[in-house]
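Summary of Year 1 activities. Much of the first year was spent building the evaluation harness for sequence design. The harness presents a backbone, in tokenized form, and records the residue chosen at every position. We chose the following record to illustrate the format because it has been used consistently in internal testing since the harness was completed.
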């Protein structure tokens, strides 16, 4: 062949761009084995959604009722015990590509992949991506792709025998299989053990080359914003590739020689704006464009939004123990966090818009960090993109929860594969600041009697102290790693020691009562919480018990905590009488949950800087259930969300015990500017009569706190049941009551409401003739989709509070003064156990 012939041949072989086609249409589902009901067997191929799951496909076909309703969970156990097959036809016309591949971003969980009857791969891991080479296996015309799923319950049982028993929470050996642990049920979660193609599937074809993996580490190195970009490519045909990286005004052009499969570029941008979390600056993002060319023709590329920030976890030893402090760009961040679980038990149903709604609610509640819990999933890029854009920090657990895990094969290789997949995928997101090895496993081994049951077997230490930290150091060195939660940085200290690192505080909910949060002086709290029911609208949409009671059949199916109702009752009666009417029980438990968590957070924050963060359990729910969440399973806001908003104010004013019979005013300033003002402390009778007063000038430095101890003339009431302290400072107000709600002289506050319609709802003015505690509008009882901007307000005699209501545009103005809509703590005290009192609410009018 002459040189002219060679040139002519290369010109004819024009590069074919990479093609990525999502395979989402035309799927069907059929049962393969199991105790499948006759109507399902007789139905024939069931239309299937991909991404999707068996449960949602059966529901979409009308073959099962919604598993979230009533007691349907109990009658649908056969689904998780059955085998299923998904099928789709792939029409294929050769497209000039030399290579073809099927990419499965998420298969749940034990599956066999077949193309035209040939088995190509088997899977056993919900949390990783599978690439299946099908080069030369596609026929011209129709090709049959099937994915056959075996029962995850049976697979977990078999794997538990093969690997050897390890202790675990709940009733299935979820720790033997790499599947979302809470899919098997949890103390707030429905047991579905579903199967399905839960993330997208695509057909990927290429010839000359393609991007296979993009690893990005954006950091601040020696004071300079720096992006370390490593690209892994597949190349063929003995041709070089041209790589272009464009980041702002910076441009890197690199030639990948024939036969090479990776490049690395370090891009420094000295004047680039940094990414900051909420309250510390703007979350500035930069666009990174990656272009791959062959012979000047673009054949592949990628776009990433990155942020430059440095992050570190500081564990300094001091006289009180060992702290745990998060620093971003050299600044300490006082964490006001919430734990995050999958927002749906069928996580494929959570799209970007739903994530955005949850992030709106998190920001409303003053949350600056979300901890993605280890019994769920590695969250989606949509979740992380929302956090990136808003400046919400993310702590992501690796997926190990409340169990011992075998370190032997085949589990070890599965864990390594999923860790590498997800650290690479998530590492470029600036919001990701902590990758954590496990949830409660180190603590469980220490305190939950595992050692005897393990009998020398492995329990996961090799993952938490070797594999995972090595993986993070290699693939995402800009992200902090911790081995466990709770976690003691001192090797000689026990886990869950409140003087060391991070702790989980559950003895209050399980054994004691919420005032005892003040017995703890933690350095950092990664979990704590209190249960409450979902909103009334969600409760009555999901349950149809007649009568509906705390112990009616459907209510018990939707209460997963061990002795949960007993703990709700035990945690209430010291503060309020136990109501007999269901509507009052619901309000009492919702209110008590909010008060409990508000008490805890205000106490933990008053310990600043000894305590540097608290992450409440939990922000959201995966289905309609009585749980620890602030947002229920249908996305509605419980009173707890408003308690979080109050306790998470960037400038917090709170009154706290400070030794025997001593009270202090704590002022916490979580802003970058000093907080100055005049502190006014007054002791009043409930009728407003002034008994004592003091006024002081105080300044609170940025990112710090001040405490003012109060004298006995303020803290010693003549009548504990009828007096309170009111504290005001620079636009903030706090109260301290000397007696429990049920032991106080609360009376009918004689509330008067005036309702003003607006374009998107109402403005409701509520005036109290007498002291009213925890004034709340339960507007979901008027319109299930309505919400308010405020709740849990204390009104002194003669004061008015304004509530902005979004929704309920067609409501009768009088509805907002209804006895089950406009609620107070007074209701529960003066109503006793007999239900809501019949009392005058005053005038209600619309204008």
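For this record, the design step produced the sequence shown next.
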């Amino acid at each position: 062949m002459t040189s002219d012939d060679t040139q002519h041949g290369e010109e004819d072989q024009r590069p074919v761009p990479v093609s990525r086609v999502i395979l989402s249409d035309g799927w069907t589902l059929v049962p393969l084995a199991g105790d499948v009901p006759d109507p399902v067997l007789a139905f024939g191929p069931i239309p299937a959604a991909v991404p999707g799951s068996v449960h949602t496909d059966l529901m979409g076909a009308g073959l099962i009722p919604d598993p979230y309703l009533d007691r349907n969970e109990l009658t649908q156990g056969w689904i998780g015990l059955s085998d299923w097959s998904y099928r789709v036809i792939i029409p294929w016309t050769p497209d000039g590509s030399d290579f073809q591949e099927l990419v499965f971003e998420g298969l749940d969980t034990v599956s066999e992949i077949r193309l035209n009857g040939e088995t190509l791969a088997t899977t056993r891991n919900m949390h990783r991506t599978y690439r299946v080479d099908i080069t030369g296996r596609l026929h011209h015309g129709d090709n049959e792709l099937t994915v056959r799923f075996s029962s995850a319950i049976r697979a977990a049982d078999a794997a538990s025998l093969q690997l050897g028993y390890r202790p675990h929470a709940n009733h299935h050996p979820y720790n033997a299989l790499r599947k979302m642990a809470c899919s098997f049920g949890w103390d707030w979660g429905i047991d579905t053990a579903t199967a399905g193609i839960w993330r997208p599937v695509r057909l990927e074809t290429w010839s000359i080359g393609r991007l296979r993996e993009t690893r990005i580490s954006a950091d601040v190195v020696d004071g300079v914003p720096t992006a370390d970009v490593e690209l892994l490519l597949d190349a063929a045909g003995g041709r070089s590739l041209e790589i272009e990286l464009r980041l702002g005004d910076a441009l890197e052009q690199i030639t990948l020689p024939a036969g090479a499969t990776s490049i690395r570029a370090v891009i420094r941008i000295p004047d680039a704006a940094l990414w900051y979390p909420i309250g510390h600056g703007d979350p500035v993002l930069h666009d990174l464009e990656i272009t791959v060319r062959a012979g000047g023709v673009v054949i592949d590329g990628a776009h990433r939004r990155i942020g430059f920030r440095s992050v570190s976890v500081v564990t300094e030893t001091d006289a009180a123990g060992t702290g745990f402090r998060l620093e971003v760009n050299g600044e300490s961040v006082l964490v006001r966090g919430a734990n995050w679980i999958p927002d749906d038990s069928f996580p494929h149903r959570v799209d970007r818009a739903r994530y955005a709604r949850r992030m709106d609610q998190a920001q409303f509640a003053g949350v600056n960090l979300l901890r993605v819990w280890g019994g769920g999933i590695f969250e989606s890029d949509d979740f992380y993109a929302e956090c990136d854009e808003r400046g919400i920090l993310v702590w992501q657990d690796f997926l190990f929860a409340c169990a011992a895990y075998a370190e032997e094969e085949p589990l070890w290789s599965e864990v390594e594969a999923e860790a590498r997949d997800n650290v690479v995928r998530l590492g470029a997101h600036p919001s990701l600041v902590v990758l954590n090895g496990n949830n409660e496993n180190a603590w469980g081994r220490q305190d939950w009697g595992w050692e005897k049951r393990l009998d020398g077997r492995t329990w996961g230490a090799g993952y938490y102290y070797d594999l995972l930290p090595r993986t993070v150091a290699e693939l995402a060195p800009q992200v902090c790693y911790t081995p466990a939660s709770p976690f003691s940085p001192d090797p000689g200290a026990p886990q869950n020691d409140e003087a060391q690192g991070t702790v989980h505080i559950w003895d209050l909910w399980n054994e004691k009562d919420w005032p005892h949060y003040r017995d703890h002086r933690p350095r950092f709290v990664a979990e704590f919480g209190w249960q409450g029911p979902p909103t009334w609208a969600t409760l009555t949409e999901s349950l149809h018990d007649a009568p509906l009671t705390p112990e009616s059949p459907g209510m018990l199916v939707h209460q997963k905590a061990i002795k949960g109702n007993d703990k709700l009752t035990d945690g209430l009666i010291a503060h309020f009488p136990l109501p007999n009417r269901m509507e009052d029980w619901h309000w009492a438990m919702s209110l008590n949950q909010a008060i409990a968590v508000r008490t805890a957070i205000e106490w933990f924050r008053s310990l600043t800087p000894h305590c540097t963060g608290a992450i409440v359990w939990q922000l959201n729910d995966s289905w309609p259930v009585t749980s620890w969440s602030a947002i229920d399973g249908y996305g509605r806001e419980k009173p707890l969300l408003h308690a979080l908003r109050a306790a998470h104010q960037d400038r917090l004013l709170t009154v706290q015990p400070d030794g025997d019979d001593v009270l202090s005013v704590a002022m916490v300033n979580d802003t970058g500017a000093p907080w100055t003002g005049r502190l006014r402390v007054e002791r009043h009778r409930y009728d407003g009569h002034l008994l004592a007063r003091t006024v002081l000038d105080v300044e609170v430095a940025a990112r710090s706190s001040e405490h003012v101890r109060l004298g006995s003339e303020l803290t010693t009431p003549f009548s504990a049941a009828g007096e309170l302290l009111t504290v005001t400072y620079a636009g903030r107000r706090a109260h301290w009551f000397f007696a429990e709600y049920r032991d106080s002289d609360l009376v009918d506050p004689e509330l008067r409401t005036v309702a003003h319609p607006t374009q998107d709802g109402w403005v409701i003015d509520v005036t109290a003739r007498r002291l009213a505690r925890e004034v709340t509008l339960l507007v979901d009882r008027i319109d299930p989709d309505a919400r308010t901007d405020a709740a849990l307000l204390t009104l002194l005699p003669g004061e008015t509070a304004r509530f902005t209501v979004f929704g309920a545009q067609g409501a009768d103005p009088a509805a907002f003064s209804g006895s089950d809509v406009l609620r107070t703590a007074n209701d529960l005290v003066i109503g006793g156990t007999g239900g809501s009192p019949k009392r005058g609410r005053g005038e209600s009018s619309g204008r």
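The longest helix spans residues 582-606. Quantitative recovery figures across the full test set are reported in Table 2.
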